[in-house]
Amino acid sequence: MRNLSLFAAMVLCAAVRVTPGQDSMFSLELSHQTPIREGATQYHRTTQPTKWVANKTAIIVCDVWDAHHSINAVRRLEEFVGRLDDVLAHARTAGATIIHSPSDCMPQYREHPARLRAQKARSGIQNLPKDVQLWCSKIPGEEAAFYPIDQSDGGEDDHPDEHAAWAKKLKSEGRNPNTPWLKQHPRITIHPQLDYLSDRGDEVWAILEQNQIEHVILTGVHTNMCVLGRPFGLRQMARVGKDVVLMRDMTDTMYNPARWPFVSHFTGTDLIIDHVERHVCPTMTSDQLLGGESFRFKDDKRPHVVFVIGEKLYETATTLSGFAAANLGQTCRVSFVHANAEDPNDFPGLGMVESADLVVLSVRRRTPPAQQLEMIRKHISFGKPIIGLRTSSHAFAVRTGTPDSPLDDWPEFDSVVWGGNYHGHHPNEVKSEINVAPNQENHPWLKGVGPFPWPQSGSLYQSAPVAKGAEVLLYGKAKEFPAEPVAWTFQRSDGGRSFYTSLGHPQDFENPLFVCLLNQAVHGMLHLPPPDLSKTYQEHLKRRPWQPLSLPKPSSISDSKVLTPEIPTWYRCTFRLPKKLIDKEATELVVPNSIDAKAWLNGQELRSRIDTQNKRTIFSMNQTALEAEETSLLVIRLPSSESASVAPWFRLNESEGHLSGRWEMRQDGDSSLSRLPLPAKFGTVSDIYIEPELHYKKD
């Protein structure tokens, strides 16, 4: 039956593609992220409706191989590969161009009509964009970005026993367990009369030009490696000026949750998608072509937590993002909605509340447009849980009067949603202490929150008496004033549950007791077991093994780094050299300010000599380890008594070049840090990719 349906679809595809004057359109909602204000590290995520002409659109299917060295990667691909084939069939029928790009597999398709068609397209194109045939490790949009995950171990999340059994099976099939792919996945249809087959950047560019393609959709695996970096990938398409998007639900990542930032595999994927939307291109989902709902992996059972932030006084745009990063990445899918810096009553992207399982609110006296506030009202009316911090007691209440249309307020919000009674606060200079409410010592959300009392940061809110149905967990007491409730749950009339705390001062987030309370409240409202440990954001950042730093040119001055005595320091970066330099006979690497350095190029240790007079180590660049036009990994190890202050540089027969820019640093005694388990272009990240500033004579 499937083969018959497939044949019918092919016939229909062919018929549609040759129809003169075809004007089929794709109606898309493209998601992108922009800083909430200039220089901010928080982002608005919004969608933009757009229409693309189908026959000016191409879908590139990146590295959807028939096998992979990671068994978990294979399992995840098997979940969505059938839907991906449906996406391609629909797009093909509408008139889109389909380009299959299973890298390293072209010999299997030597005589395939789709392969021959791609080669023919290349022969007809003369003017290619510069470097379009090369792997693309970084584009200008990523210059200031920090890459969100550590993938330097290769990203495998297999259980060791399962991985060993899988490698054994691959070997028994005559495959190389490290690179077992031979062709594209058999469930992906390659239409012999309409599609193209190529893993070359110049050929893909030629196909796009020949078919007058203006828009490109990338799908496949894995986003953080191949989909971003291949010569036909997202970065390259963005660099050469194509209108490119990622189909974010038809992709996966190579990320190991045992590596920084120690989040679930699916959160790791979310972080990469965030990086793409912020610094590379917009994204979309498959349901925009097929209808229904977007795809979700069966093991991705994370509830969706949406933080809505609209206040400046207590800096919760920063503190809550840090809290979420440190505490929720293993168990929850997290989104943020921030107020518009230009219009503080506007909340771009608030539509995400519609899919929220929990809303965490930190808003102060805002009057959103009525249709936006209605989204919050619906969340409440559906009986869904909500958490509020500090000024959220007066989130949507103005001090006097009522807002003008189309803006809206909700003055009863405090009493209706929180069961609260906010009527001011004590002076800021009046200090208060937090104590457990009577008979609440064993409440599950208070585990690890003591010992009591502990100091409150910021002023004590006056909220007593709270409504019937409120269960007070914590009280605050200031001098001779009556005690005030500072944390309570509330059973709402709509059947939903709320948790409110008047805590939330920036210094509260430096108190592990408050962080523990908030962490357990979030998990409790979602009926999830809390993590074993509650960490501050600062502790979370310290767990990142490789720390970014900038190394300037030798003529510049660098900030000193505080290092731990008696532990060697490792530095690493990636770079690419043009072929005209690699062909030279003599290539040296100079590491200044060190006479006891060691260096490795793509895992091979370099021979060295000491220039004692100038206090520097000079390495012979091993040309067998340095491949022209490919990304190379340079690792330098300095003894505990030394630290890098300026960047190394190349010294060649006819040229030199500095490796100044962003590097990574780590103090560790582990000798395995000199290499990666896979080529540098896969394992390292855009953070530390450096384009050397080269000076050489013209040929």
Descriptive labels:
699 residues, 30 strands, 3 domains, 23% helix, nine-stranded mixed sheet, Jelly Rolls, seven-stranded mixed sheet, alpha/beta, Rossmann fold, 23% strand, 16 helices
Question: In brief, what are we looking at here?
Answer:
This protein is 23% helix and 23% strand. By secondary structure, the chain is α/β, with parallel strands linked by helices.
Word description of this protein:
There is one protein chain. The protein is of the alpha/beta class and 699 residues long. The protein has three domains: 2-36 and 48-290, Isochorismatase-like (Rossmann fold, 3-Layer(aba) Sandwich), CATH 3.40.50; 304-541, Class I glutamine amidotransferase (GATase) domain (Rossmann fold); 547-696, Jelly Rolls. It contains 16 helices and 30 strands. Strands 10-9-11-12-17-16-15-13-14 form a nine-stranded mixed beta sheet. Strands 18, 19, 21, 22, 25, 28 and 29 form a seven-stranded mixed beta sheet that branches. Strands 5-4-3-6-7-8 form a six-stranded parallel beta sheet, with helices on both faces. Strand 3 (57-62), helix 2 (71-94) and strand 4 (97-101) form a beta-alpha-beta unit. It is globular and about 80 Å long. The model is unreliable at 1-21 and 556-562 (pLDDT under 50).
